[in-house]
Recover the amino acids of this structure.
């Protein structure tokens, strides 16, 4: 039985492991963190296309059991005026809309799914080097442990050491100009927002929120700010973030200031990077998937879903394409155009979130946007994001147009 070493126990890694196991591979997942962190990374959107992959792993319903269905996104101006609504899923089909979940919950559901399927999962295993011989690939971990396999799959996220091993000259992630902050809140009297997430183009920072059925508010803000020094955001205490956010959003409409006045728990913050233009996704026995080779900013709500799509596609290629190098090439050919199109789409949204506009610029945007979004609820332009279904049972290579 061929053996795959999967580096990274986030989204792409355990999903790829489960699909590969179905295809007859012996797999093991190695995760750098010592233990799972249920609160890491706030919350994120798992889009219709990502849910379709989870469905094929039998994990969709479990994920949704602690999720907020959000097939609709409502935009508001900094004065509280409704600018329009956009589908978060295929147009005119809210039943197939996307779901918002805590990032830690997504990781937990996929990890537990993999473990239940019998995939060995090792924590505290930080990959530090890769070595390839004519017959195998060897991974060495920070604690000196060594593992060997026929292939190594780097699902090691945006800072991927695997990407750098595949191509030391690969592009580095690019800072978006935005820092993401967010957390949770409870605001007395604030009604739940079923099926909906709200976005506010605040005067000095972009804000998003939803209210779950039990009254818990999920909120985030994207602050326009120069690139912070590496690791520096972790040093900033929650109270300092809150003071800054309350100031930035003090003139924004209800319920933005009220949410920021009633935050529960810690405020998370991370610089938003993306990654595009990685030309080599594999070398020899090593291949990379997910954020390791294409990272989108959260603005597209597609990071986790693309990672899931990569996982199923790579496993299908390894199942159906006899030669390993051809399988890796087919996987990249299938995935790269779509993944990079999503990254570029997210960049356009990022540019609208960055607060560089003059008062006149804001007035023009608020005047234009309702016209632009007037028929957005039935606008099929973004259906390419959501209606991308990769069926496990269909063979690759898929026919070329
Ligand atoms: C802090 C943070 C917050 C985020 N918040 C949002 C959000 O709010 N909305 C949104 O849409 N997207 C968000 N994202 C992006 C989204 O989570 C990713 O697009 C998605 O998880 C990609 O899946 P992945 O498996 O490729 O990478 P990840 O889920 O990042 O998983 C990579 C895994 O590899 C492990 N790893 C890294 N290096 C090594 C190593 N050397 N050895 C072994 N293991 C290693 C990491 O610990 C991690 O568990 C966030 C990402 C981060 C890092």
């Amino acid at each position: 039985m061929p053996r795959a070493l999967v580096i990274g126990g986030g989204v792409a890694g355990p999903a790829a492991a489960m699909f590969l196991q179905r295809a007859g591979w012996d797999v093991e997942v190695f995760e750098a963190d010592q233990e799972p962190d249920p609160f890491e990374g706030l919350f994120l959107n798992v889009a219709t296309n990502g849910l379709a992959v989870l469905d094929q792993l039998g994990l969709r319903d479990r994920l949704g059991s602690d999720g907020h269905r959000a097939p609709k996104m409502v935009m508001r101006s900094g004065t509280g005026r409704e600018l329009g609504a956009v589908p978060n899923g295929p147009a005119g089909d809210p039943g197939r809309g996307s779901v918002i979940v805590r990032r830690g919950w997504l990781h937990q559901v996929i990890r537990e799914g993999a473990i239940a399927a019998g995939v060995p999962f090792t924590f505290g295993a930080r990959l530090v080097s890769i070595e390839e011989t004519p017959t195998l690939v060897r991974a060495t971990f920070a604690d000196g442990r060594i593992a060997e396999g026929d292939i190594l799959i780097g699902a090691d996220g945006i800072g991927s050491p695997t990407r750098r091993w595949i191509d030391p000259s690969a592009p580095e992630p690019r800072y978006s100009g935005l820092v993401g902050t967010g957390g949770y809140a409870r605001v007395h009297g604030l009604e739940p927002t079923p099926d909906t997430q709200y976005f506010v183009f605040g005067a000095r920072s972009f804000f998003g929120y939803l209210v779950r059925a039990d009254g818990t508010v999920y909120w985030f803000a994207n602050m326009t700010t120069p690139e912070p020094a590496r690791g520096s955001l972790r040093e900033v205490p929650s109270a300092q973030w809150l003071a800054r956010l309350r100031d930035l959003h003090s003139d924004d409409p209800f319920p933005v200031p009220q949410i920021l006045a009633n935050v529960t728990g810690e405020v998370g913050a991370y610089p938003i990077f993306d990654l595009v233009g990685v030309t080599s996704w594999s070398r020899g026995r090593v291949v990379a998937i997910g954020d390791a080779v294409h990272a989108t900013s959260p603005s597209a709500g597609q990071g986790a879903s693309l990672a899931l799509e990569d996982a199923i596609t790579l496993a299908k290629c390894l199942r159906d394409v006899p030669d390993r190098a051809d399988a890796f090439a087919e996987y990249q050919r299938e995935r790269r155009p779509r993944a990079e199109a999503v990254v570029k789409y997210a960049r356009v949204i990022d540019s609208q979130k960055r607060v560089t506009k003059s008062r006149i610029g804001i007035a023009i945007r608020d005047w234009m946007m309702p016209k632009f979004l007037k028929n957005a609820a039935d606008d099929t332009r973004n259906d390419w994001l959501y209606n991308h279904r990769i069926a496990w049972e269909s063979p690759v290579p898929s026919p070329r147009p």
